[in-house]
Amino acid sequence: MPYTIRAMTAEDHPAISFIRNLPRARRGTLAMPFESLARSRNFFAKNSAPPDRFLVACTGDTVVGLAGLHGSRLARRAHAASVGITVHDEWAGKGVGTALFAALTDLADNWLGLRRLELSVFPDNAPAVALYTKFGFVPEGVERDDSFREGAFTDSQFMARLRGDLPRDVSPYPSSSAVSPPGPFSLRGVEPEDLPAITDMMNQPRVRHGTLRLPFCIPAEIAHLADPPDPATRAIVADIGGRASGLIMLSP
What we know:
There is one protein chain. The chain is α+β, with helices and mostly antiparallel strands. Helix content is 26%, strand content 31%. It is built from 8 helices and 10 strands. It has a 7-stranded mixed sheet with strand order 1-2-3-4-5-7-6, with helices on both faces. The longest helix has 15 residues, at 96-110. The radius of gyration is 21 Å and the shape is globular. The mean pLDDT is 89.
């Protein structure tokens, strides 16, 4: 089943809090039962700034999974990041984890140039271990009695994935979408209200391919495009039906 993978937003917090409180999802994490929405929001507010990135998997408008990439803030570990994932109980075993890990490892390998990904998993979580193994993670050690879960101490298995030297970018330039021409458009100055449309543009593969942008950008990261802080900057959008569909900027 295809899933939409996108950057997590503040609007996703209620759905994510609900997933983290589900028994099967929680059993594979260090989350506590009955976690409040406020505590969940506070956690993500403190841990969502770069180099940390969170992705969600959606089917339609429903969030069914979450994955996080947590980069090291130590200069000598800038090549490493830890990984975490949580999937809705009712969507376990339906490819959500695979879709999230495919996007996450692509982000780490092809956009961030990371050398090492690492994670911790309970050894009895066979589906999770199988998922991580499929994406190249191998066991590196066992942390004995690492966690207290459901009234008993349990080990944690440490796994990691190394990537060798990355090849030069030889990917073909993305082809144009097979859609009809949009028709006439008008040019106007950018407005702050254009930010959602500009964010959508900057997340499109062909647009991103020609820039230095990372995948899964969120509005806060590119707010300056819709509201340039330098008054000397000229920003013009191509407006199609009231929606910003192209952007050009001149920064003296």
